[in-house]
Write a structure and sequence with these properties.
Pfam families: ABC_tran (PF00005). With about 110 residues, the protein is an alpha+beta fold. It has a domain of about 70 residues. It is built from two helices and two strands. Strands 1-2 form a two-stranded antiparallel ribbon. A hairpin with a 2-residue loop joins strand 1 and strand 2. About 0% of the residues are buried.
Length: about 110
């Protein structure tokens, strides 16, 4: 069943009819965003289209966010290495590395 509302007590995040304008430029108009707890999401699009802006607005709570949710914005970091790996593959492999580090930390 599709719904535009988060279920009470849920850790899901739902933004309905979000419109964002920055410097007179419409970045999002009447957007619906659903983030299911435990899901992994990517925000992709051409440069200058508002991806970082929407994340900053969420992290600074300039867009309303449930008070029981903690948001942390980690700015982009650039590492230049010789690699044929795509950006998507790099992100997916980084999750595997994080899981491995977490498992190793539990053993300590």
């Amino acid at each position: 069943m599709e719904t535009d509302q988060a279920i009470d007590g849920s850790r899901d995040i739902v933004f309905n009819k979000v419109s964002v304008t920055v410097g007179g430029k419409v970045l999002f108009k009447d957007a619906l965003v659903k983030l299911v707890a435990g899901g992994r999401y990517g925000l992709m699009g051409p440069n200058g289209r508002g991806k970082s802006t929407i994340l900053r607005l969420l992290a600074s709570r300039e867009l309303p966010v449930q008070s029981n949710l903690d948001l942390l914005l980690v700015e982009q970091e650039q590492e230049f290495t010789a690699s044929e790996e795509s950006a998507v593959a790099a992100v997916l492999s980084s999750h595997k590395k994080q899981v491995a580090f977490a498992a190793e930390a539990l053993k300590l």
